[in-house]
Amino acid sequence: MRDGKHVILCVDDDPDVLHSLRLVLETAGYHVVAAANAEEGRAAAQQAQPDLLIVDLMMEDVDSGFTLVKGLRAEGLTAPVYFLSSAGDYLFDTTDVGQFGAEGVFQKPLAPDRLLSVVAARLRASVGSSPTG
To answer: How far, in Å, CA of 33 to CA of 95, rounded?
Structure first.
């Protein structure tokens, strides 16, 4: 947390998506840290210690989102991660994203109400399960 707000790291190579995420999440009272690619995302995750991450599945490389999350998990990141993708519901209906270190997937275009609902529920669950929560 930063200044009493949950920190959410958003990683996406589309500036319009980052702007939309920031607008929706900051309006709801979250502190948003944005990164435009996997390399920036890795550095931002290490520096910001986010409470939750939203990571675009396909950025500079087809699997860069998976690779970023896999690397962060190997480095000890325990915060919940959601992928962001326009790959289609079928892919995620038939793929266990948990094997890639993620809690779930947000489908592009984003539905702000669903985004906020899922984020709030997951952060409540994280706080409830933490030693200090």
So the answer is: 28
Closest to 38 measured CA to CA, from 80, 69, 79, 82 = 69
The answer to whether the CB of 117 falls within 8 A of the CB of 88 is: no
pLDDT mean values, one per 10 residues, the chain (133 residues): 94 95 97 95 96 90 84 95 80 72 87 96 79 40
Side chain identity at 37, as an amino acid letter? N
Please state, in angstroms and rounded to a whole number, the distance separating the CA atoms of residues 38 and 115: 21
Give the containing element (helix H, strand E) for 72.
helix 64-74
The burial class, CB within 10 Å (0-12 / 13-18 / 19+), for 52 is: buried
Please answer whether residues 32 and 54 qualify as being in contact, where contact means their C-beta atoms are separated by less than 8 angstroms.
no
Residue 105 pairs in a beta bridge with 83
For residue 4, how many C-alpha atoms fall within 13 Å in the half-sphere facing its CB?
A: 1
Instruction: Give CA–CA dist 57/123, Å, rounded.
Output: 21
Collapsing DSSP states into helix, strand and coil, what is residue 80?
A: coil
